[in-house]
Inverse folding.
């Protein structure tokens, strides 16, 4: 995961944001599509997290991963809504980034959930129920 996260982080304009890889893990998925997941989530965190946001990536429970930031977060009542096509709270945003993330995650047979991060930001958890995805 560390190599993939590094490639994706360098492909996104991150300004003063920081990345932390909390845990190392290996999983199996379509490389190009999984890159889209990370790049869209990184872009979203930097865009909505504010100047100097820190993004953390790590393993979630025994069979998944998470990506969280220490930005403003997503209110509980809006967490499902942000995954809908066309939803954007950013001026000029297309509203497709998180929809793409959800569709790629689901196409892999995984589950996506949004919660609050440990420092108050947004946390995206990807559950990989199929143990065949973990290596």
């Amino acid at each position: 995961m560390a190599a993939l996260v590094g490639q994706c982080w360098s492909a996104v304009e991150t300004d003063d944001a920081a990345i932390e890889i909390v845990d190392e893990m290996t999983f199996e998925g379509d490389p190009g599509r999984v890159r889209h997941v990370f790049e869209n989530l990184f872009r979203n965190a930097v865009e909505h997290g504010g100047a100097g946001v820190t993004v953390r990536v790590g393993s979630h429970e025994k069979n998944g991963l998470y990506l969280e930031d220490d930005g403003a977060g997503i209110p509980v009542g809006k967490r499902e809504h942000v995954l809908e096509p066309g939803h954007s709270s950013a001026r000029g945003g297309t509203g497709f980034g998180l929809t793409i993330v959800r569709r790629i995650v689901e196409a892999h047979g995984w589950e996506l959930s949004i919660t609050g991060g440990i420092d108050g930001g947004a946390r995206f958890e990807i559950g990989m129920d199929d143990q065949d995805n973990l290596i």
Remarks:
- The chain has a mean pLDDT of 85.
- The chain has three helices and five strands.
